[in-house]
Amino acid sequence: MNQHYKSEQIIHSESCRSSILFFWLPTKFKITNRRIMVESKNTVFGVLPIGHRSENITYRNIASVKSSSKIHVIRLLLGLWLFTGSFRLMLSPDFFTLGVIELLTGFLLLCHCSKSKLKIISNSGQSTEIEVPFIESKKINKVTREVNNQIINF
């Protein structure tokens, strides 16, 4: 990531997957005694990396830090419908490949229907949002807790 000042100490470092499928595109957090550094990859269609996004936010500029979880209902319902409906297609020899495609599409939608989000709001009202799969929610909660501890101690 970025260089540190001599008096800056790394308190906590965490790496989260940005997506369940694309595990090679991590989002990295470094929490020091002065700031939080967030680095993530920019992608085309969520697959091909084309650059990166890096943010350094000092604690005096942070108004609040929140973590939340969300279920995307439309993705969940569409994924369930495609996933369960694919089995009747796979029983027919004529539509077996279509059934497999429908099964995979439904499975992918089900995997991406639940997300955890870290939201850092600055004093000016600008927000930084990082969204990760539900599997990484413990890591997001840990980052939130560590940043809040550092803001209190700052």
Beta-strand percentage range = 35-45%
Q: Give me the side-by-side strand order of the main sheet.
A: 1-2-3-4
Rg: 20 Å
Order of helices and strands: EEEEEHHEEH
- Helix-residue proportion: 25-40%
Low-confidence stretches: none
**Number of helical stretches of at least 4 residues:** 3
Secondary structure class reads alpha+beta
Largest sheet: 4 strands, antiparallel
* Strands, count: 7
What is the fold's blueprint, element by element?
Layout: E1 10-17, E2 26-32, E3 35-44, E4 48-58, E5 62-71, H1 73-91, H2 96-111, E6 114-122, E7 127-133, H3 137-153
Helix pairs in contact: 1-2
Explain what this protein looks like in three dimensions.
The chain has 154 residues and is α+β, with helices and mostly antiparallel strands. Helix content is 34%, strand content 40%. It has 3 helices and 7 strands. It has helices spanning 73-91, 96-111, 137-153; strands at residues 10-17, 26-32, 35-44, 48-58, 62-71, 114-122, 127-133. A 4-stranded antiparallel β-sheet has the order 1-2-3-4, covered by helices on one side. Strand 6 (114-122) and strand 7 form a beta hairpin. Helix 1 runs antiparallel to helix 2. The chain starts with 9 loop residues before the first strand and ends with a helix. 18% of the residues are buried.
